[in-house]
């Protein structure tokens, strides 16, 4: 089950797509006014379907505006069939280009293929709101910007983020991240978290909460 945003100004097409995707057990948000997309919580969606030829804000413009804020697949729905249109749309950051009229079965299959690919690719990535972790590369990003964390700072962030919402003492964090053979002590965790907060604050990210007298938790 995925959360999918569908944007199309034609009510009949919007209803057709919505009903088909609900049949596939997806959670679907259908929007007919493209201007409303700018107010949506785009990070909540696993895939976005955009009609190209819409009044007001067209699909190409909308894709250009939102691509930097979302990393999920964006699929265009359009009656434009010229190769130049296809290349332009993909150049804006879209992942696929589905030409109208289309068979609903084929559309469902294309959506399913993109969602499966996303699942495979995200096995080594942890997404939490505007922050994501490259688990294999041991890197933390805010949108497209890599945060310059030290190895110890990254390990603390990953440990807390993997168990977000849970509170851990300094001692627990230290033993988990550095092991019993660590050369410092748990008070070092306080300094590491201070440095992490300073680095994330440059992106207006407040990810680690202090629970006084107990410890820390990842709150995003």
From TrEMBL:
SUPFAM superfamilies for the chain: C-terminal effector domain of the bipartite response regulators, CheY-like
Chain positions found as 4-aspartylphosphate: 51
The keyword Phosphoprotein is assigned to this record: yes
InterPro entries membership: CheY-like_superfamily, OmpR/PhoB-type_DNA-bd, Sig_transdc_resp-reg_C-effctor, Sig_transdc_resp-reg_receiver, WalR-like, WH-like_DNA-bd_sf
Gene3D superfamilies membership: 3.40.50.2300, 6.10.250.690, Winged helix-like DNA-binding domain superfamily/Winged helix DNA-binding domain
Domain Response regulatory: 3-115
DNA-binding region: 123-220
Keywords: DNA-binding, Phosphoprotein, Transcription, Transcription regulation, Two-component regulatory system
Domain OmpR/PhoB-type: 123-220
Xref: PANTHER family: REGULATOR OF RPOS (PTHR48111), RESPONSE REGULATOR SAER (PTHR48111:SF2)
Protein name, per record: Response regulator ArlR
Native source organism of the sequence: Paenibacillus auburnensis
